[in-house]
Design a protein that fits this description.
- This protein has 240 residues and is an all-alpha fold.
- Helices cover 76% and strands 0% of the residues.
- α2 runs antiparallel to α4.
Length: 240
């Protein structure tokens, strides 16, 4: 089967599963809401107004992870993967279509999330946002979208390896919410290379860490590529 109809079928699966549409909506709402709260709390000359405007991405990424994990793990329920592979025997082609079907809407909604969060955060910050240049604001909004898409794809790759949405969420969500912060406090520059810490470097006005605003997301992209390759390898090696 050609790639286009495979991609179309995977897109139909995603847009007809209500839980995934809810996850995309939660990505926007959670990011904007927590960014507004962080902007209200931003005080002092040492605060980072750009990161305050995008602080909610720490919570919106949970929805992105849930979206990517659910999109893949749903295939392992009720023999769904066997049906998919009977229609598309080329496993690599099917998994590529699945990744594209996850990545494109995650990027589109992620970009929307970035600009909504920027608008809400800037409005709440008021005069504190005046120090931000338009290039910094554009970089933050676009970087937010790219980061959320990468995290959704990262979760998709992990879910393909673990074959379980519960296991994927049980590992990634505590890691993103708790472990990453703890490791960041005790490990110095090593934490800069964790997938979430690296990707969020683009959301800071100035970087105090090892990675710059775009080298950070590049590191996250490497984590994502590794997860997807591991997922593709697992899919090829194991029975449906």
């Amino acid at each position: 089967m050609a790639f286009a109809p495979v991609l179309h079928s995977e897109w139909i699966k995603i847009r007809t599963l209500r839980s995934m549409l809810w996850a995309l909506g939660a990505m926007v709402l959670a990011t904007a809401a927590f960014s507004a709260l962080a902007a209200l709390d931003a005080e002092g000359a040492d605060s980072d107004p750009l990161f305050s405007a995008f602080f909610g991405v720490s919570f919106g990424q949970v929805a992105a992870v849930a979206f990517g994990a659910t999109a893949v793990s749903s295939e392992f329920q009720g023999g769904g993967l066997r049906v998919s592979l009977s229609a598309v025997p080329q496993r690599g082609r099917w998994f590529t279509a699945k990744a594209v079907a996850v990545g494109v809407p995650a990027l589109a909604v992620g970009l929307l999330t970035g600009f909504v969060s920027l608008a809400v955060g800037s409005a709440v910050l008021g005069e504190k946002a005046d120090t931000l240049t338009w290039t910094e604001q554009l970089r933050g909004a676009v970087g937010c979208g790219v980061y959320l898409a990468l995290m959704a794809l990262f979760a998709a790759g992990i879910a393909a390896v673990l074959r379980s949405g519960v296991a994927t969420l049980g590992i990634l969500i505590p890691f993103l919410i708790l472990v990453s912060f703890v490791v960041g406090d005790v490990s110095g520059t090593i934490a800069d290379f964790l997938p979430d810490k690296a990707g969020q470097a683009v959301l800071h006005e100035t970087s105090d860490g090892t990675l710059g605003p775009w080298s950070g997301p590049a590191v996250t992209a490497c984590w994502t590529a590794a997860a997807l390759l591991a997922g593709a390898w697992s899919l090829r090696r194991r029975d449906a």
